[in-house]
Amino acid sequence: MSLTALADALGSSRLVTDPDVMDAYTRDEAHLATPGRPLAVLIADSAEDVVAAMKWATAHRVPVVPRGAGSGLAGGATAIDGCLVVSTAAMRTIVELNAADQLAVVQAGVVNADLDGAAAEHGLMYAPDPSSYQISTIGGNIATNAGGLRCVKYGVTRDSVLGLEVVLADGRILRTGHRTVKGVAGYDLTGLLVGSEGTLGIVTSATVRLRPRPPREPATIVGSFGSLRAAADAVAAVVRAGIGPSLLELIDRATLAAIDEWKRIGLEPGTEAMLIAQADGPDADEAATAIERHFTEAGADFVAVSRDPAESAQLLEIRRLAYPAAERLGQCLVEDVGVPRSRLPEMVESIEEISRRHAVTVMTVAHAGDGNVHPTFVFDRLADGSVPDAVWTAADEVFRRALDLGGTLTGEHGVGVLKRRWMALEVGEAGLDIHHAVKAAFDPLGLMNPGKGF
Amino acid sequence: MSLTALADALGSSRLVTDPDVMDAYTRDEAHLATPGRPLAVLIADSAEDVVAAMKWATAHRVPVVPRGAGSGLAGGATAIDGCLVVSTAAMRTIVELNAADQLAVVQAGVVNADLDGAAAEHGLMYAPDPSSYQISTIGGNIATNAGGLRCVKYGVTRDSVLGLEVVLADGRILRTGHRTVKGVAGYDLTGLLVGSEGTLGIVTSATVRLRPRPPREPATIVGSFGSLRAAADAVAAVVRAGIGPSLLELIDRATLAAIDEWKRIGLEPGTEAMLIAQADGPDADEAATAIERHFTEAGADFVAVSRDPAESAQLLEIRRLAYPAAERLGQCLVEDVGVPRSRLPEMVESIEEISRRHAVTVMTVAHAGDGNVHPTFVFDRLADGSVPDAVWTAADEVFRRALDLGGTLTGEHGVGVLKRRWMALEVGEAGLDIHHAVKAAFDPLGLMNPGKGF
């Protein structure tokens, strides 16, 4: 295994072997995953160098762990012993921004917010906005099929990816998709690669769809409710009415209490849940009025509508504080189940019941308009550094409950290493077999991110 | 090869071997494709019987050609010698229509319009509306990833499919996807199967997304233009402005002339193109006014806006007459290229130039808002029944031009048998290799619809 041969084959990309430097490249934000020790880390700056790395890895049978910014929550970028880590985070060029065709061609390391900012200069936006949008890369967003707040209206990452440039395990370059909004020549390999968590190839570049930016600031509607059920009813009413909010978030009492304790947001006693919605587009005012009415009719104790950008930003900030507020209280396992939208009340109530029964603190926020629920398990590690059994037992029950309700283990974070053992429950035996066969079709030697996803 | 063994294994499905009856099941609407002679036709009425058929086919190495209503335009349902044709068109049950979760579970043979009609009773719609919507099945729409008029706003079939039940080549049942709007557990097998033209398995049931039905009739805007370029400029302006029409169709002079000759629509001399747009939703009036203004500013000779349902239907009828008007003039090859939206004028002008140079009549309509162009080649067969060389030569040039402009061979019809020989041009050698490997992952014996797609 000559790293020298790899170093010689590279252009200007950096090959790191210093253990202290490598350490930062061995993990993502899934703190419960235990990383192995890589052979080396490649900080790639071109597709050609990724090609060289994969040819070398194939020749020497070295497993490869691709990564973007490392903001993933499921351990998809966790290094394994003896692997080559390939980071595309330094490939930050926006190659083309085409306003007429409302698309951009970007290298994998372009940060989500940077692309959205560049699009804004042309009156456009890059719609997918995971909470990590200020640091996460388009390549990482594609690997996990990242969601976000505004995907309730504009769809997930997959809905914004038109085509990909991918380096395959054997070093060949595969180009998928096109620059058109429609196209059915052959299998949808673009869609297959989005969300494949680095197990099929390494995305080096993407052609993504941009959308017209709403012409003005959205209207923001906030409502507080005396019961979770009332808040969930309000969500169902908004969805049923076809209003199409651009954001519809639920925050539970435990999360609100943690934020209030920290930032003093003036939480009223008796508030069990808060909803924050936004409406953009030409009918934003009409939509905001309708959402306000649905909140009131569902029994909100308090509803307010703001059309002031500064005030809207303050209201959204409450939502963004949910995770840091949880982190103040202990170790966090951020979960990510999804259920059909009508089952949201049952899911949230089940989470509360499971939390009580196992005496595990769980704080829940939800992309309620999508039925995507993030229960965060908050706990202290045991003396030996391990996770209390009750945490995984409670998480197991949450996963099974989501599946029983017709839902999914993961709405937007991915399976990574943390959720592999539940995969057969969701996709079934035939589904797992097909996953293995598809994986072998792309990567017959099993070198691409082994041990991740399924 | 004992058909008796198959017949014995079936429940109430019909097995047809009468050559006269079988004939209707050997072809679709791709009249240039030459069908072979099947061994038998299975008119399935349950997934269990499709399972039995695939187990039998695998045991006896019999190739299988799946089909829905047979309205395809690329020959994806063309029978081959010695095959078993499996029709799912008789599986017409809407298993569930869930208004709260805005989804339906349907058997593969449910007709598109029947599903949309059932959804309408709940204030919902099934958005994908291929021109064949009154006869084509959801299973067939899924196999081809069908588009349609309103997909400029609501997306193609793939964007409305949440999950599938598929019978694999070996007779196992694969269930993909979920009942949630988001989900990233494992590979997007649902998306991979949509548009796979029956080469990976047979769809027996689907969970599809329904959307809120716009609360009232759309506004319709029609404009006539003295040049194709002006019409294309109007399209670009509407797209750029982010208006989001629910329909935006272009009809060229040759098509208008054929319709006028037949139905006397009062075509003005000098009209080179017509645009028909619709706007729905709460801001329909505002959008219609904006579209009218963009048409005028781009140089329309005439613009009219109608909010009257009967008049709107009449205007749309002009668009629907395009294909029957062409069929009156001779044999038709309906093509289906897609280009980035800004390249629409170049594509349409290239088609006119190619038509003139090869002296082949071409009549063009386009889902202009998507850059999806349907040039219909109209010709007389030669004395021996064959297609004049000039037709395929001209079509070849149209395909290559679309690819040169960053486009695709097929926006919504599929590759079938008619476009296979151009596939390598679009997907490349690595892409073809991956197609074959993915195919083998699902269907190692190569029994599923051999000779189709790639």
Automatic annotation (TrEMBL), chains A, B:
Record keywords: FAD, Flavoprotein, Oxidoreductase
SUPFAM superfamilies: FAD-binding/transporter-associated domain-like, FAD-linked oxidases, C-terminal domain
A Pfam cross-reference name: FAD_binding_4
Highest taxon, organism lineage: Bacteria
Cofactor list: FAD
Signal peptide (UniProt feature, chain positions): none
UniProt domain FAD-binding PCMH-type: residue ranges: 34-213
Gene Ontology molecular function: FAD binding; oxidoreductase activity
Gene3D superfamilies in UniProt: 3.30.465.10, 3.30.70.2740, Vanillyl-alcohol Oxidase, Chain A, domain 4
PANTHER family the record matches: GLYCOLATE OXIDASE SUBUNIT GLCD (PTHR42934:SF2)
Protein family: Belongs to the FAD-binding oxidoreductase/transferase type 4 family.
Protein name, per record: FAD-binding protein
UniProt source species: Prescottella agglutinans
Lineage, opening ranks: Bacteria, Bacillati, Actinomycetota, Actinomycetes, Mycobacteriales
